[in-house]
Amino acid sequence: MKVLRKILDEQAKLFEKGGPLEKLYPLWEANDTILYTPGTVTKGTTHVRDALDLKRMMITVVVALIPCVLMALYNTGYQANLAIEQGQGVKALLTWQTQVMELLGLPFKSWHPISNLVHGGLYFLPVFITVFAVGGLIEVVFAILRGHEINEGFLVSGFLLPLTLPPTIPLWQVALGTGFGILFGKEVFGGTGKNFLNPALTARAFLFFAYPAQISGDKPWIAADFSFADVTSTLPDAVSGATWLGKSATSHALGEHAIFGPEWIKAFYGFVPGSMGETSALACLMGAVILVATQVGSWRTMLGVIIGTVGTASLLNLVGSETNPMFAVPFGWHMVIGSWAFATVFMATDPVSSAFTESGKLLYGIGIGFMGILIRVVNPAYPEGMMLAILFMNVFAPLIDHYVVEANIKRRLARHAA
Question: pTM value?
Answer without folding.
Answer: 0.84
